[in-house]
Each structure stands twice: as C-alpha cells, then as structure tokens.
Write a structure and sequence with these properties.
It is a single chain. The protein is an alpha/beta fold. The chain has helices at 2-6, 18-27, 52-55, and strands at residues 12-13, 32-33, 43-47, 65-69. The chain contains three helices and four strands, in the order αβαββαβ. A two-stranded parallel sheet has the order 1-2. A two-stranded parallel ribbon has the order 3-4. The longest helix is centred in the N-terminal third of the chain and has 10 residues, at 18-27. The radius of gyration is 12 Å and the shape is globular. It starts with a helix and ends in a 5-residue tail after the last strand.
Length: 74
C-alpha cells in the first residue's frame, strides 16, 4: 500500500480498532477512513479486503463498485 500511496493513489480504509486507525492515519495522512459496513460499495479501482469472508457475501457482491478485487491478505 505504501508504494501506491507514494505514487499518489487515493487510499480509503476501514478499521474497527481505533489504535490501528490512528496508526494508519499517521502513516497515510491523506487516507480516508470509511465504515467497515459500507467500504465495499465505494467506487474505487482496486479493493483489497483483509477478510474476504466478511466483505464478500451474497449481500455485498452486487454492491461492489471496483474494477478489481485483490486479496484477501490473511
């Protein structure tokens, strides 16, 4: 993510842990925090879920507005 950020990519993220969200904000000052319940519906080029079983469900699959889904990370 750092390389994308340094190249000028707009970063949107969802994080439920407040301490982690503050760390992300410190590393990526222009990153925008979104709700974990709705981030999948943001219009983006690439969506990288950390937990696909949470974000990719029968309910959300039709709501995606991205060109590519890459992941999950874990």
């Amino acid at each position: 993510m750092r390389s994308l950020y340094l190249a000028g990519a707009e970063i949107l993220y969802a994080e439920i842990n407040e301490d982690t969200a503050q760390e992300i904000s410190a590393l990526y000052p222009n990153a925008k925090r979104r709700s974990p319940d709705t981030i999948h519906a943001e219009e983006v080029d690439v969506f990288i879920p950390c937990d696909a079983s949470v974000t990719i469900t029968e309910k959300t699959v039709d709501e995606f507005r991205c060109k590519a889904i890459i992941g999950p990370a874990n």
